[in-house]
Specification:
The protein is mainly alpha-helical. The protein is 58% helix and 6% strand.
C-alpha cells in the first residue's frame, strides 16, 4: 500500500511525534507506515485522514501486488 503520509505531514508541518500523539500511536508506527512496512487498520487510517481533513483514499492507495 502506497501512502502520502510524509507529504501530508510536511504540508501540515507535523513531526512524526506530533502526528503520533494526535492519533494515539508511537512515532515508530508513523515511521513504519511512511516506509510502507506497516499497513494501518481502518480505524487508524480514518483517524489520520481526519487529522489532515482528507479522505482515506487521498492518503492511502492500493498497489497492484496488494
Amino acid at each position: 500500500m502506497k501512502n502520502t503520509l510524509k507529504v501530508q505531514r510536511a504540508i501540515h508541518n507535523f513531526t512524526q511525534e506530533e502526528l503520533a500523539k494526535r492519533i494515539g500511536v508511537s512515532r515508530q508506527t508513523i515511521n513504519a507506515m511512511e516506509l510502507s512496512k506497516y499497513v494501518p487498520s481502518t480505524v487508524l487510517a480514518l483517524k489520520i485522514a481526519r487529522v489532515f481533513g482528507l479522505k482515506v483514499e487521498d492518503i492511502f492507495t492500493l498497489e497492484e501486488e496488494d
